[in-house]
Structure formats: C-alpha cells, structure tokens
Amino acid sequence: MTETPANTPAETPEPTEEDIFEQKAVRLAKRERLMAERTDASGGAYPVSVPVTDTIPALRERFGDLEAGAETGVTAAVAGRVVFSRNTGKLCFATLQSGDGSRIQAMVSLAAVGEESLQQWKELVDLGDHVFVEGEVISSRRGELSIMVATWQIAAKAVLPLPNMYADLSEESRVRSRFLDLIVRDRARQTVVARAKANASVRQTFANHGFLEVETPMLQVQHGGASARPFITNSNAFDTDLYLRIAPELFLKRAVVGGIERVFEINRNFRNEGADSTHSPEFVMIEAYQAYTDYNGIADLTQEIIQNAAIAVTGSTLVTWADGTEYDLGGQWERLPMYGSLSEASGREITPATSLEELVAFANEVGVDLPPHATHGKLVEELWEHFVKPGLTRPTFVMDFPIDTSPLVREHRSIAGVVEKWDLYTRGFELATGYSELIDPVIQRERFIEQAKLAARGDLEAMRIDEEFLRALEHGMPPTGGMGMGIDRLLMAITGLGIRETILFPLVK
C-alpha cells in the first residue's frame, strides 16, 4: 500500500459555476442516500452528535513527536472537516482540519474497516464534509500523525464544494464569505484570535487601573458625542425616530457624574459615512473616562493599553505586519503640537489667531481642498494632514486642537484658542483621541449652540443641543480625562491589515 502525503497541494483549477452546480447535485444525491439509510447509530447526513473524546490540537500536542511508523496503542475519537482526500484501492487517506486549523491524517484501510465500510467512504465522503473517525493514533511511514480508522461516520454533509485550499481567495471573496476564508486561510483564523487577545488585554489593563466596564444605549433619542452623520431608525413602540449611536460619550460622562469615576465601554458604533481602508460604517470602539486626570494622564494610559495589547497578540511591542514590515510600538511616544508642527512643516506661521480668510487663501495656494462648511479649525486640520501627517513614522500624540472642531473639550489652560485634545497617529492613520473633558455646563451649552448653528446651515455632522446631558453636567462632573480608540484600528496597528480584514464580518455592498 502506498501512502499519499495528506497535505499535498491539489493541482486543480477553481471550479466554474457549472462545475459547482453539478457537484451540488451529486452531493445532494449522497445526502439523500445517507438520509434514506440512516439509523439511530448512523444519524444520516446530519447526526445530532458524534462520540468525540479527543481534539485534533490535543492529539498533536501529545503525539506530535512520534517517529515515522510508530504505533501508540492509544485509541482516539475525533471529528474534523475533510480538506484533502485521496482514495486508492485498499487504502484511503484524508486530512481532517479542526476549527483552529490543526490537522490530522485519517487512514481508512480495507483491513481495518472492511470492504463495505471502505466502499461507503469512497462513495459518500467529499471535501468539505465533517467526518468523525475513531481508531489508533499512529505515525505513518512518512511521519504523518494519523488515526488508523476502525470506525467512521459523517458528522455533517457539505453540499457545496470548498474553494481551492491552496489558492488565495480574492479580498472581495474573503470579506463576503468569511466562513470560507476561515476554513482556507491561516491568517484569517489568526486575526480572530489576535482580536480576542487584544480585547482581553484591554480589559485587563483597565481592570489593573480600577476601571469599571459598563454598557450604554445603542438606540438614542438624540445622537451626540462626536461629529458624525448618524443612522436613523424608527421605534414602533415609542412612535418616534431614534438614532444608532455614533459614540457613547455623553452617557459615559453621565456615569462619571453619578460617581463611577473610572469607567469604560467596548462599544459598537454606527456612522453613516464613507467606507475605505480605515473606515467602516459599523465599528467597535473603546471609550474611557477617568476622574481627576487630564489629557496627559489619559495619553499615558492609552499608550500602556496599546503596548500591552501588542505584547498580548505578538509577544513584543516590535510588531511584524502582514507584509513583513516591522513597526515599533515600544518606548515613549512623541507629543507634537498641532499648530507648531504645521507652521514648521509649511514654512508659514499659523496660530489660533490666523484668520479664516488667510487659511482659505493658503489652502488654495497649496492645493488643499476646502472642507464643507469651512471653519478656522477645519482648515487648520486639513492643512496639518497635508503638511505633517505624511511625515509621521513613529506613534505620535498630536496635541492641542482648534477650539471650534472640539465642542466637548476643555480650553487649554495656557494657550488661547485651542483645547486640550490629542489625536494618536500610528501607521499613517488616527488610532485614538483623548481630551481634558469640558465639565463647565455653561460653556458646554454655548458650544452646543454654536454646533446647532452649523447644523442649521446644513452641516450634517454637527452636534445638537442635548438638554439631558447638560442637566447632568449641572449636577457637577469632576475634572476628567477621556479617550476613544477603535478596536478595529488597534488590530490594524498591530497586524498591518486593512480594516475589512480586522472585522470578522464587515459590511459589504
């Protein structure tokens, strides 16, 4: 009997739609046969359960060092998806894959299972099927960890074929059919694990600093907490329009007013805006608020959160991206003033006192498009992105933003015309933002009124006046530092992947 290596690449082209249609018809016929022949023991094509006693990863951990041809005398019962199969006269080979990508070879021989069972294997088992096997754990003559099958059973019949296991799926196919991506591609499974590790690390870092995790409403009678266009829905029960939240900020601040002085939420947000390599209409964000600190203290915490997450995912703050590039998230990150860095990079002094007319003229001069409803702050930020952002290579906190683009932030304690806000840039994109929070209810109302004026002029991203939030502030909110960071973008910074790769099931058109 000649053994065929279980992981030999298949030299077969991708099936056409006609091929898939024909394969589905054949597989459905096999399903009908299995259902017709089912018994309480066999369960047909879809048994309720199979008597698994072991897992493929555990067997690989226990017996991974067996010498070629070794026998263990240990009987194991496992199930997995068939990702490779070759049938020869008296011996059939299959590779079974577990959910984490671990594999083991199943060897189905005439001597071990008998002629009828071997023939059924050949006739009924296809690539993609989930199969249960029980038998002795051995190492084949080629050194492949295997189960010499004594009994087997279909655990779930696949009526559609798998894609080619040895050819890359297109990015579009990966995001539209993530379930296939997870079966075929190690990187897809690793990204899911990385995200889980990062989330666990984030929670642990917050716990180490005494933060409490809470949940705030996704459906809100008024959107707020960020400058973004919301999704609108309608409640039949309340007979009113509601908004999917664009941020949890105003509710988390209510919690701080109520005495939860260190609070965070890992929350799902929705913004009715464009989608690209760094933006998704539905995304996950961390927001956190800490009483009796400011934007400097919250920057220290944010750096610690990110560095701990990198270590949890990769074992180091020196991470290697998907394209092989190394990126250093370690050390102390630079804190760069927005106005000072813009003036230096552009060769023209720009300050909070620079007029809107001067900024418009300069933007036209250097070819920077004017943002809709241009204000001093919006133009300063556009110019900064044009001149400074492309030169940032290390993680950098960009400090002290224009006052008119930051309506929820405290004015700078010593620099007129700016607020105590930072944006953290890594890998060329904004990863997080942090504030010394505005806690004066009188000034907050004035800021909301200015935002309402912008909304009245057609700015769809402007905030509205939130009377309930103002009432909470009027009961007294302690000095507080706050931050927000995208979990999807955190994974992008650690792995080097695009946002649609870091989201398990991204929204696609």
TrEMBL record:
InterPro entries for this protein: Aa-tRNA-synt_II, aa-tRNA-synth_II, aa-tRNA-synth_II/BPL/LPL, Lys-tRNA-ligase_II, Lys-tRNA-ligase_II_N, Lys-tRNA-synth_II_C, NA-bd_OB-fold, NA-bd_OB_tRNA
Coiled-coil region list: none
Co-factor binding details: Binds 3 Mg(2+) ions per subunit.
Catalytic function, reaction form: tRNA(Lys) + L-lysine + ATP = L-lysyl-tRNA(Lys) + AMP + diphosphate
PROSITE patterns on file: AA_TRNA_LIGASE_II
Residues binding Mg(2+) 2, per UniProt: E430
Enzyme kind, highest EC tier: ligase
Residue ranges constituting the Aminoacyl-transfer RNA synthetases class-II family profile domain according to the UniProt record: 200-506
Molecular-function annotations in GO: lysine-tRNA ligase activity
EC number assigned by the record: 6.1.1.6
Keyword field contains Nucleotidyltransferase: no
Superkingdom to which the source organism belongs: Bacteria
Alphabetized UniProt keyword annotations: Aminoacyl-tRNA synthetase, ATP-binding, Cytoplasm, Ligase, Magnesium, Metal-binding, Nucleotide-binding, Protein biosynthesis
Localization per record: Cytoplasm
Binding site for Mg(2+) 1: D423, E430
Co-factor requirement: Mg(2+)
Pfam families, sorted: tRNA-synt_2, tRNA_anti-codon
Complex and partners: Homodimer.
Similarity remark: Belongs to the class-II aminoacyl-tRNA synthetase family.
PANTHER family given in the database record: LYSINE--TRNA LIGASE, CHLOROPLASTIC_MITOCHONDRIAL (PTHR42918:SF15), LYSYL-TRNA SYNTHETASE (PTHR42918)
Protein name stated in the entry: Lysine--tRNA ligase
